[in-house]
Amino acid sequence: MAESLLRIEGLSKRFGGVIGSDNIALDVRAGELHAIIGPNGAGKTTLISQLAGEVTPDSGRIEFGGTDITALPAWQRSMLGLARSFQITSLFPEFTVLDNVALAVQAHAGHSFRFWSNARSETELREPARTALARVGMAGRADAIVSRLSHGEHRQIELAMALATRPRLLLLDEPMAGLGPEESGRMLALLRELKREYTIVLVEHDMEAVFALADRITVLVYGRVIATGGPEAIRANAQVRQAYLGEGDAAVLNHV
Amino acid sequence: MNKLLTARNGFVAVLVAFLLALPLYTAMTGNSFLLTLFTRILILAMAATSLNLIMGFGGMVSFGHAAYLGVGGYVVGILAYEGVSSGFLQWPLAIAVSALFALVIGALSLRTRGVYFIMITLAFAQMIYYVGVSLNRYGADDGLTIQRRSQFAGLLDLSNRTIFYYVCLALLFGTIYLVWRLINSRFGLVIQGARSNDRRMRSIGFPAFRYRLVCFVIAGAMCGLAGVLLANFTNFISPAMMHWTRSGDLIVMVVLGGMGSVFGPAIGAIALLLLEESLSRFTEYWQIILGPLLLAVVLFARGGIDGVLARIGRG
Predict the structure, then answer these.
(1) Beta-bridge partner residues of A34
(2) Are β-strands A4-15 and A33-37 bridged in parallel, bridged antiparallel, or unpaired?
(3) Chain A residues inside the 8 Å CB shell of B205
(4) How would you class A41 by CB atoms within 10 Å of its CB: exposed for 0-12, middle for 13-18, buried for 19 or more?
(5) Looking at domain B7-12+34-314, which CATH architecture does it have?
(6) Is A192 on the interface with B (CB under 8 A)?
(7) Across the strands, what pairs with A172?
(8) Closest-CA residue in chain B for A100?
(9) Do A103 and B193 touch (CB under 8 A)?
């Protein structure tokens, strides 16, 4: 069995009286695509935020590649090779597409206390950025201003920025959120390709995509892990079906 | 269409030519009023340019930027009073002390955002203002006259009006050029990225705070140099140099000229001070006219004068 790249133990987080994460234990093995699903409000984004370092857990431990990262700030986690994409698009809207991705490259190309030479003419930054854009099918839009592009294109740039940091682990928070059927199809194909190269933690509402992509699935309900296992095991799990019945989504589990 | 031949570039070129030729006019007519006025404008334009670096490009709206004018000026004034009038000593020291003040103020203020940042920078500036008021040895409230302008071992005679004007002009151009290099460098992109989306910066691996702080220090040092010039220009220092309304004036210059534009603040400084000069001839209540004008710029001409010029070019 592959060794785990990301290990979470006893992770808990409360927001006042609301439980965000309840004693979560999770193992992400190197090379796998590990999907996290659960009904709305199950604490999926809360979990991702704790992994990325935006939210500090009340208790528990997060280990990444053998290093305890529980107390590290977000930027240091990025330095270690943890990249995230946001559920709600989070880009530099007034910059060009290429500038956006090149900044992600720059963050990992030494310190940025360089005050004189024009960063936009540094091939060392621009080339890897172009490669990442080509990877997500955005090579043709490199010089467009981000704010003028469509939602679907924003989702692709999100992904390109994560790739540009040369990560060891991708944390993807609903990469397909808000995409039309055609765009979803393309994103699915892209994720299928990326999965061969990267270890991925995927939070996604699109069950079809999850069951098509995931090696293992963890199901969260009210901040608690109720099941972890392969797609078949999850589909057959009585507790999972119960959890989704409330939303009328259990049918989804049957069809996929 | 030729990209160089835009309305904005044309305007800037004419402006630069005018500034370069102004001393000729004075030499021919013997009227030094304009030269004096524009020397003051150039100095404040430099301060506004430095404020724009943090405010326009870095998104750090400092309401205490005039403090560095005061700090730079006081270093010159105090040294002159104590008998040190060498510019080779005064100027670097003034810049260093301004940078140090900015480092301390920035290290504390940059932990806050938005309105809190505005308020805390104002509070620091007020503290420094009252330190100036309490310096009894150096004139306290009344200020202190500087007997001799900074000496440069006979290389540069700052008491010559024309030379002083050109020194200010050269330093303003130098500051603008420096800002232009900065904002297009790796450092500058980080600063602008942090203004645009701080959360995203952290998630791609930037410790944004330290970049912001360095930017804040650079701007403080630049403004300190403007303070050096201001003290030399007026031959006088007083707490009034760093009164909070002066900080407000600098913000108005930046907004009026165009936030986040390299030439904007200089244009804004020229516009504001010329307006002040000409309107105050008609009425002592000239601010009643200036107020609505500013409102109009903020409401209808976002991007300031420079933004309007850029739009004319495109249209």
Answers:
(1) A201, A216
(2) unpaired
(3) 75, 78-79, 104, 107-108, 165
(4) middle
(5) Orthogonal Bundle (1.10)
(6) no
(7) A85, A202
(8) B193
(9) yes
Closest CA to B44 of B214, B213, B277, B215: B277
User: Cα B87–B92–B95 angle (5° rounding)?
Assistant: 120
A145 three-class SS: strand
- How far is Cα B188 from Cα A98, in angstroms, rounded to an integer? 16
Residue with tokens 């001393």: B23
Q: Mention every residue, 6+ apart, whose C-beta is less than 8 A from residue B180.
A: B262
Question: From first to last of its 315 residues, what are the pLDDT tens digits of chain B?
Answer: 456 778 888 999 999 999 999 999 999 998 899 999 999 999 999 999 999 999 999 999 999 999 999 999 999 999 999 999 999 999 999 999 999 999 999 999 999 999 999 999 999 999 999 999 999 999 999 999 999 999 999 899 999 999 999 999 999 999 999 999 999 999 999 999 999 999 999 999 999 999 999 999 999 999 999 999 999 999 999 999 999 999 999 999 999 999 999 999 999 999 999 999 999 888 888 888 888 988 888 888 888 999 988 888 775
pTM of the model: 0.93
A79 touches chain B (CB under 8 A): yes
Calpha distance B296→A28 (Å, rounded): 57
Query: pLDDT tens-digit profile of A36-81?
Result: 999 888 999 999 999 999 999 999 999 999 999 999 999 999 999 9
Nearest Cα residue to A84 out of A20, A134, A158: A158
Shortest Cα distance from A51 to chain B (angstroms)? 11
As a whole number of angstroms, the distance between CA A90 and CA B276 comes to 43
**Is the distance from CB of A87 to CB of A177 less than 8 angstroms?**
yes
Please judge whether B185 and A116 are an interchain contact, meaning their C-beta atoms are less than 8 angstroms apart: yes
Where are any strands of DSSP class E within chain B?
144-145, 236-237
**Domain coordinates of chain B in residue numbers?**
7-12+34-314
Closest-CA residue of B relative to A48 is B203
Token pair in block for residue B42: 């150039």
Give the CATH H-level superfamily of domain A1-81+167-256: P-loop containing nucleotide triphosphate hydrolases (3.40.50.300)
Give CATH 3.40.50.300 domain extents, chain A: 1-81+167-256
